[in-house]
Design brief:
Radius of gyration: 29 Å
Strand content: 5-15%
CATH class of the domain at 369-514: Alpha Beta
Structural class: alpha/beta
Strand order of the largest sheet: 7-8-9-10-11-12-13-14-15-16-17-18
Number of strands: 18
Helix content: 25-40%
Distance between the termini: 63 Å
CATH architecture of the domain at 369-514: Alpha-Beta Horseshoe
Largest sheet: 12 strands, parallel
Number of helices: 17
């Protein structure tokens, strides 16, 4: 008889001084409940209250799951706040602290969190905010504060030497103070967001305009930069590190001067209504490209509300690295699509956003889906059954990972056509069908042996997020069971549900239901 197992030397084959008694060697076995990856999945995906229950399974589980319980503390629910004694005991495990009221700030301000890296404070008291920041200056990487500006607060923030991301909201400061923050923090931050509440006083001639557009948000140094009506800052600040730039309204010419100061710009989003009496954003960009200065590195371009066919061809032909277009809320139409279709950009375009383009027809959207082979992300509005009937070509964008589209009310035969085309997009990870009137359920009229469009989407095994809003049909347990079986990677689900049918997905999907 042959034994299957690890090969060990027989005691008879060993030298006399190395012989051991038989069956003294013990095999070490690891219980599946002790596998580290199992415990990580439990801590990462289960709700916090369930993880707390899991602490009681055994000592090893208690030690492994305890950091997941205490890693993030939030004060949104005042009824479930941790006891101060327990918080002091487990303070070294806390990595993220979110404070929403002054009571928690006073209570937790006496505790030192040695490993704190994320601190978010959302209440107006600046004195308590300063104390909390000063206690954790050596460890903070991300800081979000929403309170009135003060010199003491600025000094506390500047003392955080490891700080990488700063979100500063409701800061009541003037331009000169704003420039101080900008210049002293830009060189070492990856993300800087400033939402400025303008302050106007008779003795402050440099105060910001107190209109609604005087709210600025700036994210810089290799991330995003957004600014509204704060053009004075650009005159005294270096912005060479900015790679992503976003504008919302304001002075077009001032924005353009800002763009010219960013030689490393990779992503530009310019949302500004076109004013026929002045030069448009597209006109300024084309003019800059014709002179051959900068903008050659642009990979992503957004021109929401600032689109014009007159400059479109020149613009896309002179940006050799461009691969993403966001033309939402613009006048993009069939003529625009023909210009794009005939350009070299159509062969390398990976992302296209055409949401809320009122002049764009469903037939044009169908042509886009049948023409752009390399699309990875596509967002648009509406395709009707007439569009599908007039153009029976298959969609060619097989590499599509994110699709947001709405199908108008369709007849039963065309549901199968839509399902077939969606099923061929096997790489889809995010699918948003909005208010599409499709039979996206498994049980029709109470007969569970009849299947709708949803069952034909079993090929989409990479699905991570699925969203559809149906006014007349709600999901039941049979649909949820199908989802768990056929979409193993699903993390977000937005669907209408019948009452009492939420438990089947608890702990398995980060679900949101309508």
């Amino acid at each position: 008889m042959t034994l299957i197992g690890p090969q060990v030397d027989s005691p008879c084959s060993l030298p006399q001084n190395q012989k051991t008694a038989p069956y003294t060697t013990k095999r070490q076995r690891c219980s599946p409940l002790e596998l580290p990856e199992i415990l990580v999945m439990l801590g990462r995906h289960l709700p916090r209250d369930i993880v707390v229950v899991c602490l009681r399974v055994c000592h090893m589980w208690h030690q492994a799951l305890l950091p997941w319980v205490w890693s993030s503390i939030k004060s949104r629910d005042t009824e479930n706040l941790p006891q101060l004694s327990a918080l002091e005991t487990h303070a070294p495990l806390v990595r993220e602290l979110y404070i929403r009221n002054s009571h928690c700030a006073s209570l937790w301000g006496t505790v030192h969190f040695a490993g704190l890296t994320v601190l978010s404070i959302s209440f107006p008291g600046s004195e308590k905010t300063v104390d909390l920041i000063q206690q954790h200056q050596s460890t903070l990487l991300f800081l979000s504060v929403s309170c009135f500006y003060s010199p003491e607060l600025l000094e506390a923030i500047l003392g955080c030497q490891r700080l990488e991301k700063l979100h500063f909201f409701k800061a009541c400061i003037n331009v000169s103070e704003w420039i101080v923050i900008y210049e002293r923090l830009l060189h070492r931050l990856k993300v800087l967001t400033l939402s400025v509440s303008p302050r106007s006083t008779p003795n402050d001639p440099e105060s910001l305009d107190d209109s609604e557009n005087a709210v600025g948000r700036l994210n810089c140094s290799s991330t995003v930069a957004m600014l509204q009506n704060l053009s004075l800052v650009w005159e005294s600040a270096s912005v060479g590190k900015i790679q992503d730039l976003t504008f919302r309204g304001g002075d077009i010419q001032a924005h353009f001067e800002m763009i010219r100061k960013c030689p490393d710009l990779v992503r530009l989003s310019w949302c500004c209504p076109v004013d026929t009496t002045t030069r448009s954003p597209m006109h300024l960009l084309v003019q800059e490209l014709q002179y051959g200065t900068g903008l050659d590195q642009l990979e992503s371009l957004g021109l929401q509300q600032a689109f014009s066919n007159a400059y479109f061809t020149i613009l896309i032909d002179r940006l050799p690295k461009l691969s993403a277009l966001d033309l939402s809320c613009s006048s993009f139409d069939r003529q625009s699509w023909q210009l794009l279709k005939g350009s070299a950009l159509s062969k390398r375009l990976k992302s296209l956003n055409l949401m809320k383009c009122p002049e764009l027809s469903g037939s044009t959207l169908q042509d886009i889906m049948c023409s752009l082979v390399g699309l990875v992300t596509f967002k648009a509005e509406l395709i009707s059954e007439t569009d599908l009937e007039n153009d029976k070509r298959n969609w060619v964008c097989s590499g599509l990972k994110e699709l947001r589209i709405c199908f108008a009310p369709v007849k039963k035969p065309y549901e199968d056509v839509i399902a077939l085309r969606l099923a061929q997009l096997t790489n889809l990870e995010v699918l948003d069908l909005d208010y599409s009137r499709l039979s996206l359920y498994l049980s029709i009229d109470g007969r569970e042996n009849e299947f709708g469009v949803l069952d034909r989407l079993r090929t989409l095994r990479s699905m991570k997020s699925f969203r559809v809003l149906l006014s007349s049909v709600a999901w039941n347990n049979i649909e949820f069971e199908w989802v768990l079986e056929h979409w193993p990677k699903l993390r977000n689900l937005y669907v209408p549900v019948c009452g009492g049918n939420l438990g089947i997905l608890a702990g398995q999907v980060d679900h949101h239901y309508y």
